[in-house]
Recover the amino acids of this structure.
């Protein structure tokens, strides 16, 4: 049984405001966005030893707000949909910069999972242990199942047409999203709160962020399962790179299946 302490209430409130902030900013509701940020600023002033956490959420939401307004401007420009999509996903760098600035300001280590995984290491799963290389191979095979609809419904000419765009989009999107959610936010949160809390926050937040690209709320929440998987991969391997590879494969499959454009 979980004891409902003031600390737990504080963490739940902080997470709720963070999620609401992502939703209202994604929907371009400026008044709601400013209200959430105002409440977070008040909490920040009273947060004491948890001021870094509130700063992290505030910097994310402020950077995300800038990201949204830049993307709205890009949407108004006359250019191809593919170019627009690539530029817009590249703008996730605003969120990276905002989070990095906060970590530097608080004298925190910026990136935590930059080492290559130890392939011969054995990792512990709920019911057994497995060699890391085998675990990653299984994960890659499972991720690759996203290409199955491609072979059923799409022609090879479509794949050739979308190849360059698919690779560029997948590299940009997978790298920046994993840096934001796993390398910066997950590593930062787990230093101050439980690993469970850190995984939940980053996974749900990762899912909700997809509302900003027009995906409905319920579907976006399903993306949180992907966030849970990527977080598990990062924590088990102590490296961001396998998660980026898995994320790249999923994104490439989504492009080729026509789910991105």
């Amino acid at each position: 049984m979980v004891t409902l302490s003031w600390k737990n209430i504080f963490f739940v409130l902080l997470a709720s405001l963070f999620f609401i902030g992502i939703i209202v900013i994604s929907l371009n509701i400026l008044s709601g966005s400013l209200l959430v940020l105002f409440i977070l600023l008040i909490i920040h002033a009273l947060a004491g030893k948890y001021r870094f956490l509130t700063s992290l959420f505030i910097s994310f939401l402020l950077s995300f707000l800038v990201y949204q307004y830049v993307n709205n401007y890009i949407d108004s420009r006359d250019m191809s949909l593919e170019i627009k999509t690539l530029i817009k996903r590249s703008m996730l760098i605003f969120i990276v910069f905002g989070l990095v600035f906060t970590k530097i300001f608080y004298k925190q280590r910026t990136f935590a999972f930059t080492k290559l995984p130890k392939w011969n290491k054995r990792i512990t799963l709920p019911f057994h242990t497995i060699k890391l290389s085998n675990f990653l191979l299984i994960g890659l095979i499972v991720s690759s199942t996203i290409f199955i609809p491609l072979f059923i419904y799409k022609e090879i000419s479509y794949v050739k047409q979308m190849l360059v765009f698919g690779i560029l989009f997948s590299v940009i999107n997978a790298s920046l999203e994993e840096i934001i959610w796993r390398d910066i936010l997950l590593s930062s949160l787990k230093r101050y709160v439980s690993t469970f809390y850190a995984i939940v926050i980053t996974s749900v937040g990762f899912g909700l962020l997809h509302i900003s690209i027009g995906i409905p709320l319920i579907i976006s929440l399903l993306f949180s399962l992907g966030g849970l998987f990527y977080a598990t991969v990062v924590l088990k391997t102590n490296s961001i790179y396998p998660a980026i590879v898995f994320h790249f494969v999923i994104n490439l499959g989504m492009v080729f299946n026509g789910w991105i454009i």
